[in-house]
Structure formats: C-alpha cells, structure tokens
Design brief:
With about 170 residues, the chain is of the alpha/beta class. Helices cover about 35% and strands about 20% of the residues. Strand 2, helix 2 (about 40-50) and strand 3 form a beta-alpha-beta unit. The radius of gyration is 17 Å and the shape is globular. The N and C termini lie far apart (about 50 Å).
C-alpha cells in the first residue's frame, strides 16, 4: 500500500523490459498518477505490464512548471510515481527539480532502486570500480566539450560519461 502524498522515484529498464523490479511494478499500478519523461515511450512499458494508471508528461522543457503542479497534487494526498525513459530519474534525466521542491516543502520522497546505465556499463567494462567519477552528458558544443574533457584528463579514477549515439564520433 502506497503512502498518500508521497513522490515515488522509480527506476525503469534501460533496455530489457524484464529488468524492472516488482516493487516498481506495484508502485506504478497503485499510484494515483505517473509523471513520465515521454508518455509515448513509457506507454510501451505500461502496456507490457497491463498498467492503466493515468500518466502526465514531465520532461526537461516543462520540469519547472510541472514540478509545482506535482507538489500541489502530492500535498492534496495523491501518490505520484516519477519515471524517466530509462534508468533513474534525477540522474541525467528530469527529476531533480521536483525532488528538491518536495524536500523544501516537506513532501515525502521515496526512491525505488533499479536499473542504472552508468553502473551497469561500469561493471560490464571491467574497469576499476572502487573509485570512479560520473560526469553525465558532455557539452554539445565542440569547444566546451574539449575544455570539459581537458579539465578531467588528469583524474586517476575511472570516469563515466553519457553520450548520445549520434555524437559519439565527435
């Protein structure tokens, strides 16, 4: 049973739909509302598991405005599940804004662990995982990207970056 007025930050699969936790599935079924990064993308996951919870969009272009709306819904007693397209909201995906607003408004937040692309890739790589740095996405502009990489070049631990497939060669 979900706690009313709680934001549930739910990790979603990063490829294989079977890589979702039972707790996340239960939460998605029981929540009053699902805030999804891309409702079209998330609909595939929800249909696969026959989840009919209402969904609204929550993405980088509406994050500030929707965060206020979501917190008001939470304060009125609704339970809301927050999901991104893949992985854990708030890690290089929308989510930090509403989580911070919940914290400042004393609205409960619960994080349901699961798939994480950075950690999955790190373990698969075989590179040292005892000390590592996560940097998220590099700047899109070539000059800024180069400066960013140069500033990190002397770090001795494994470094993890996210990058879009179409920008890998650059």
């Amino acid at each position: 049973m979900l706690a009313k007025g709680t934001l549930y930050v739910c990790a979603t699969p990063i490829g294989n739909l079977g890589d979702i936790t039972l707790r996340v599935l239960d939460t998605l079924k029981e929540a009053d509302l699902i805030a999804a990064e891309d409702t079209r993308h998330s609909r595939k996951l929800l249909q696969h598991y026959q989840i009919n919870t209402p969904m609204i969009s929550y993405h980088e272009h509406n994050e500030k405005r929707k965060s206020v709306e979501l917190v008001e819904k939470l304060k009125s007693g609704q339970s809301i599940a927050l999901i991104s397209d893949a992985g854990l909201p708030g890690i290089s995906d929308p989510g930090a804004e509403v989580i911070n607003l919940c914290r400042s408004e004393n609205v409960p937040v619960d994080v349901l662990p699961g798939a994480n692309a950075a950690l999955t890739a790190l373990v698969l790589s075989g590179m040292p995982a005892d000390h590592f740095s996560f940097h998220g996405f590099l700047p899109a502009a070539a000059g800024a990207r180069k400066r960013s990489l140069e500033s990190l070049a002397n770090l001795s631990q494994t470094q993890i970056f996210y990058e879009a497939p179409h920008r890998l060669l650059a």
